[in-house]
Amino acid sequence: MSEKAQEEAYVVVFGRTQVGKTTLILDLMGISDAALLRVSKVLRGGRDAGQSATATAMEYSQSGDDRWSLEESGVVRFFEGDADMASALCDLRQRMEAGALECLAPCRVAIPLGCFVGDMGQPIVRMLDLPGAGASGKREQSHVATLAQRYVPQRPDPTCRTGRRTRFPEA
Question: For the purposes of burial, counting CB atoms within 10 Å of the CB of 98, is it exposed (0-12), middle (13-18) or buried (19 or more)?
């Protein structure tokens, strides 16, 4: 990791599935209202509303042009159209569900420049979107647990003297 990356703040967004984590990140990044539905649809990777969409740890950024890109394990692929990017994200999810996805680092998605409000530039804070807790499939649950352990610091509950870890409330 570069010295600059070590100095940057890194915010991890983690919580229950289907509560708007990705939408929050897109809003903070400056996705225009006109492009929000388009971007959200692409990032769902063909999944219907109500289904968990974020397949693995994802870091979003602004593309330098009007193409999408997906970086996975150091390999960057560029996509001219929304359908091709959605298909690549669908494939990523299918590999996760099959237990064939090994992400040692977050996947990075660059969103087309024209989807942003004005020229906001890159965010000062790096934001990491994790799949939702409470996923339905066993492989997805296992994947989410691994990512949460890696990226979400566990700390003792300040209201408890026994040092138990903070847990998410049950649904």
Answer: exposed
